[in-house]
Write a structure and sequence with these properties.
Layout lengths: L4 H5 L21 H9 L13 H10 L6 E4 L2 E4 L16 E7 L5 H10 L2 E3 L2 E3 L3 E5 L3 H9 L3 E3 L1 H4 L3 E2 L5 H16 L10 E5 L4 H13 L4 E4 L4 H14 L13 E4 L7 E6 L2 H13 L4 E6 L6 H6 L5 H10 L10 E4 L7 H7 L4 E4 L7 H10 L1
Parallel strand pairs: 3-6, 3-10, 6-7, 8-9, 9-10, 12-13, 12-14, 14-15
Antiparallel strand pairs: 1-2, 4-5, 11-13
């Protein structure tokens, strides 16, 4: 693991309460300041005449690359610096690829399915990351690249560390050993990102195995067969693992449509916190009528948190509503805001005088019942 300022400070004169503590010979006012600079690589260890050999060795060891980054087009494989996400964050998501052979009998059908596969999650659209193309054909390569799918070959795989799949327990144990050697021991023999090839077509087995390998600690998985359900499931899992725990998940701030809304559609409003969006979107999708959902730019905060932090105000909400040409089609001019934003109603009404602001439910699951009562009133 990386040496922190406190780890370094313990070896310095002030950390050991030596008589040479804070001598300023390094150019810093205190040993702690020098330790901070060393931890960030902003100063040279040689500036301190009292640096012990043990710390010098640790600092040299700390310079070694933990896991290399291998790039291919927009793909980045490897580059991890921690064993556990909560320590910092994982860097580059595990790559999902599928094998494609132009000489295979099902080649055209498989290529068509790969090109047509698209999965939407948290407001973004995803497809297969890469294709391991055997006997590649130029036209097919062009079509894949146009979709943003990278083409990998044996030369690319030679830069990675191949792990043979035997059984789940042994393979996971091997991956953990490789990642530990790379991250903790900084052993350069294990610094290449790992990849595994999985055969078979049983969805349940592949999904269970691949899920474990994503968690511990494959950098790339190549599947022999293609399954839309499998890739959709794994992409969802990956989104939950390869996120920065210090940044909330958020969706794009815009107006979303549900069930082909017309001029009689209802308009709802909430923040861009991903969980808020999905909770509301799920209920709107279940309605028999069409609707619009206005998402405000709230730094990924939930409704109450955004209101408390002034990340959702009448001014912010009115700008999003006014900027959308889609909402010009709506005749009833009613906006339903979350129940937790009841205190914002009057301000929002003043900011949007041509709209009628209605306070909705505090919980998303109550939306269908709320809409039913509105329509029967």
């Amino acid at each position: 693991m990386s040496l922190g300022a406190m780890d370094i400070f313990k070896f310095l004169p002030a950390g050991k309460r030596d008589t040479n503590a804070n001598c300023k010979k390094c150019g810093c006012p205190t040993c702690m300041m020098f330790a901070i600079k060393l931890s960030k690589g902003q100063d040279a260890p040689s500036k301190c005449p009292f640096l012990p050999d043990e710390l010098i060795e640790k600092l040299e060891h700390n310079k070694k690359v933990q896991q290399k980054v291998v790039t291919l087009g927009h793909l980045k494989v490897g580059g991890e610096t921690v064993l556990y996400r909560h320590e910092k964050t994982f860097v580059n998501p595990c790559v999902f690829a599928v094998e494609l052979d132009s000489q295979s009998p099902d080649y055209k059908q498989k290529l068509k399915r790969i090109l047509e596969f698209q999965f939407e999650c948290i407001g973004k659209k995803y497809h297969i990351d890469a294709v391991y193309f055997k006997n590649p054909i130029d036209d097919a390569v062009s079509l894949l690249k146009d979709k943003g799918i990278e083409i990998i070959n044996d030369d690319f795989l030679a830069k990675l560390y191949k792990v043979e799949y035997t059984n789940l327990q042994q393979t996971v144990s091997q991956l953990i050993k490789i990642r530990t050697c790379a991250i903790v021991d900084r052993n350069e023999e294990f610094s290449n990102p790992t990849f595994i090839k999985l055969c078979g077509s049983d969805f349940c087995s592949l999904c269970a195995i691949a899920s474990s390998l994503v968690c511990k600690y494959a950098n790339m998985i190549i599947f022999e067969e293609f399954s839309e359900a499998l890739f959709a499931s794994l992409i969802t899992l990956r989104l939950n693992i390869y996120t920065d725990p210090q940044k909330p998940l958020q969706v794009e701030s815009k107006v979303y449509e549900f069930n082909n809304p017309d001029e009689n559609a209802l308009v709802f409003l909430t923040t861009n916190f991903a969980l808020s969006y999905f909770a509301v979107a799920n209920e709107l999708s279940s309605l028999k009528c069409g609707s619009y959902l206005v998402i405000t730019p709230s730094d990924g905060m939930s409704v109450l948190t955004a209101w408390s932090a002034q990340k959702i105000t009448a001014e912010i909400a009115s700008k999003v509503v006014s900027a959308s040409n889609i909402l010009d089609k709506v005749k009833n001019k009613i906006i339903i805001i979350p129940g937790l934003l009841a205190d914002l109603k009057d301000e929002l009404q003043q900011a949007l005088p041509s709209w009628r602001i209605i306070v909705g439910t505090a919980e998303a699951y109550k939306i269908p019942e709320f809409v039913k009562k509105m329509q029967n009133a």
